[in-house]
Amino acid sequence: MNYNLLESPDATADAGSPRGSRPEAGPAGGIGPRKLRTKIFLVAALVIVAVSVFYLAYFPRRLEKNLVRNIGGIIETTTALASVGLAAELKAGDKAGLEMVLKENCRQAAGIRYAVVEDGSGLVLASANRDVAEQNMYRESDPTQRPLERRAMYRTRTPVMADGKALGTLFLGFSFDGSIAGTTREKSMIVIVCLTAIFVSGLLASLFSGMITRPVIQVTRTAEKILRGDTTQRAKVYSRDEMGLLARTFNAMLDGFERSRRDMEMANKSLEETMHARSQEVEKEIVERRRIEKELRLAREELENRVEKRTAELSKVNEELSGKVIETRRAEDQLQSTLDRLEKALEGTVRAMSLTVEMRDFYTAGHQRRVSALAVAIAEELHLPSEKIEGLRFAGAIHDIGKVVMPAEILGKPTRLTKTEFQLIKDHPRIGFDILKNIQFPWPVAHIVLQHHERMDGSGYPDGLIGEAILLEARILAVADVVEAISSHRPYRPALGIDKALEEIRRGRGIRYDMRVVDACLKVFKDHRFTMKKESAGVIYQ
Ligand SMILES: [Fe+2]
To answer: CA-to-CA distance for 455 and 464, rounded, in angstroms?
Structure first.
């Protein structure tokens, strides 16, 4: 809270004054309201004094002028009236009447002290005050005497005229002590009234200024107490006017500040508690982090040691493995060389076995080689794995090896075989199986040879297998065997041609022969990927 906002502008303007000279004066200086009260009082006093001075300067002088004017009027009137009355008596020459008229005028006129009438020669004809007449005092004059002083004598000399002729002279003496004393009393009364008015007005101005400034003083002192730390102080409300409203507004503002201060204190306390709790959490986190960092450092050092140790071990093992790898490669090279020789030996063996059969059966010569080639072409069309294709190629080259035990007369008989002879021929797949079953081929060559006369509908031999029970390689070999057999010469008939052969497998598609194998075989011939060459012994396919 900015308590300096309570400092009055007057206090700032009077910065050169000895602030703090009063012990009770606070930051507000405690002089703002007092100066305001003094100003109000001085202004009111100045106005009152000015009015009083004007009143004192104007009204006494006016009283004096009125008095002088009244005295002049009385003298003039009295003189004129007396002259008129005396003129008749002088014209008649009646001294007794003259004196009676003179005294009557003196009795009726105010302020006359003497009256004397002379004739033209200076002889006193009548007088209202014989002592003055006998002592000739009515002829005296005192021009320096001020007219309004008490005991002053106003003297007049007036000719008494009748018919335009001066019959005598009238001397009158006036004294207005009573009127002057009355005027003096009135002037004194005016002064007393003015002084009383000044005093009363000053007192009222002081009270009024106090009434005006008291709420301000209260507000200022309350603000000073609040600045000293006593926030429970409130300004006392004295009236229902604007000043009272100022005090009430000030109190309401203080209440608002107090509520805000309490709210801020509560918020600050809550914030401090939160910060304290957070600080403790942060300290715990720092301790935990340092512990983790220490553990990580130790773990890293241990890991580095292990890595270093393990690296040394691996380097040693690597060196050992390098030697073993060299040895293994050398062994692999030797093994590969051995495998190559074995493969060549195997191929030579298979070729020898194939030639053995063909040497005993002239018409079968080249049959196994052509069946093998066609079977490989069909397998490639079916996208079989290369291992299966290789096995199929070996099996096709020796698939009729079982005929090696068949009598040459039956194999080369130019007429149809008898039932007994045919039953003998039907044993060649099992005989071939028996010949090959103990040879450790990497492929099921013996079983392919055994099943190459099986048919999908079970009409084949020697076991009458059905469908998927027949190896895929055997199903391919069967189709290739039928196509080659029909299209080439046989001892008992001439070659029927490739069209007859393809017609046979097309009729047996999905019945005796595998549907996919037949489609692949037809596509191979349709795409001319398998060409035909004629030899003296028959039709040769590559
Ligand atoms: Fe066969």
So the answer is: 7
Sheet holding 154-162, edge to edge: 124-127, 112-118, 165-174, 154-162
pLDDT digits (tens, 9 = 90+) for 354-395: 777 777 776 666 888 899 999 999 999 999 999 999 999 999
Q: In angstroms, what is the span from residue 413 Cα to ligand 1's centroid?
A: 16
Q: Is 31 in contact with 11 (CB distance < 8 Å)? A: yes
Ligand 1 center from residue 482 Cα (angstroms): 9
Token pair, residue 97, equals 């009447």
Q: How confident is the model at residue 30 (pLDDT cuts 50, 70, 90)?
A: very low
Q: Are 171 and 155 spatial neighbours (Cβ–Cβ below 8 Å)?
A: yes
CATH no. for residue 492? 1.10.3210.10
- To which H or E segment does residue 539 belong? strand 538-541
Residue 370 CA to ligand 1 center (angstroms) comes to: 13
The answer to whether 396 and 375 have CB atoms below 8 angstroms apart is yes
How far apart are the CA of 224 and the centre of ligand 1, in A? Answer: 130
CB 202 within 8 A of CB 6: no
Q: Is the peptide bond before 491 cis (omega within 30 degrees of 0)?
A: no
Domain contains 123: yes
Domain count of the chain? Answer: 2
| Whole-number Å distance between alpha carbons of 388 and 471 | 11
Distance 434 CA to ligand 1 centre (A): 15
499 falls within a domain: yes
Only one residue has tokens 């002729």, namely 165
Residue numbers of the domain that contains 148? 49-199
CA of 379 to the centre of ligand 1 (A): 19
Distance 385 CA to ligand 1 centre (A): 25
CATH value at residue 183 = 3.30.450.20
Distance 429 CA to ligand 1 centre (A): 7
Task: Identify the H or E element spanning 251.
Answer: helix 242-360
Cα 132 to ligand 1 centroid, rounded to whole Å: 209
Give, for 407, the enclosing helix (H) or strand (E): none
Q: Identify which of 40-44, 143-147, 411-415, 457-461 has the greatest average pLDDT.
A: 457-461
CA angle 497, 500, 504 (to 5 degrees): 140
C-alpha atoms less than 13 angstroms from C-alpha of 150 in its C-beta half-sphere: 9
